[in-house]
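Model: You mentioned two targets. I'll fold them one after the other.
Researcher: Yes, keep them separate.
Model: Target one:
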Amino acid sequence: MKSIVVAQPKSLTLGIMLGMAIFTIPLLLAGPQLIVGTIVNALLVIIATKTASKYWLPLAMLPSLGAFMHGVLFGPLTFLLLYFLPMIWVGNLLYMKVVTMNFGNWPLVVRVIAAASFKAALLFFSARIYHAWGIVPAMFLVAMGINQWFTAMAGGILGKVALKKI
């Protein structure tokens, strides 16, 4: 009788490795948002390009959970990140989806610009609403706006360079 060996999909194995990295980077690094965010967004580009979309949701959730658990991103106001977690998850998924969509053969750099803009807009408008309601201070407008756009852009470029090396 033959035994059947089911091979594990390559994208699942890669997804697990990238998931460990994307979770631990914000958990372990106390660096500025621009550095940590750039690395996380680069990993999101790699994940979106190299893994099946069915693995994206948990991988999109891990970096913000790591940052929240680390507790240093916004100092004593890190607990306010809890309000943003669902929007960050949706923003990461949106970023990954737009990066991988092929709009009439747009180059990756154009897709990164679009993805970064959508992600930053979603997070900025969420921060704007929370700020208007008195939930978060004005510093979150910058952190969830222009900083998100820059880290998504830089991460997209870094991810694109890394993909050429992979």
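Model: Target two:
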Amino acid sequence: MRDEFPKDVQRALAQRVANKCSKCRAVTSGPHTDESKAVNVGVAAHITAASVGGPRYDASLTAAQRSRASNGIWLCQTCAKKADNDPVRFTPGVLRAWKAKAEAAADAEVGRTAKPATVTGLRIELPLPINPVTSSSGSGSIRTPTGTYRTA
């Protein structure tokens, strides 16, 4: 039998990290085609497994302890799968550190206006004017703001 998280715990885990994955910070919810619904790609993952034989199972915990928010972390499906497939690498300590860092990041973002995205290193080359509107110097050339062109 699995000790699942109640819906309110799942909701709290997601909201405590601004509906972003606690590891990669990917946004885990967004609009559905039905405007009364949302798409969710996040999961309330257990830090120590919900059942015997699961990744990072801790027999010392009670069923109630396994179902508490303190034993949960909000992850995108990719990060959750990676964590469960390699429990030696992704220990309870590692997952708790991700959770703490993600909650601190969300706390720092609450009530702050998002910074506008900036684009660096972008250069747009425009074609030379076909019919430049400029002054003629009378010497068979046209002077434009971007250079001088021979006309004859």
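Researcher: Noted. Anything on target two?
Model: Helices lie at 7-15, 63-66, 77-85, 92-109.
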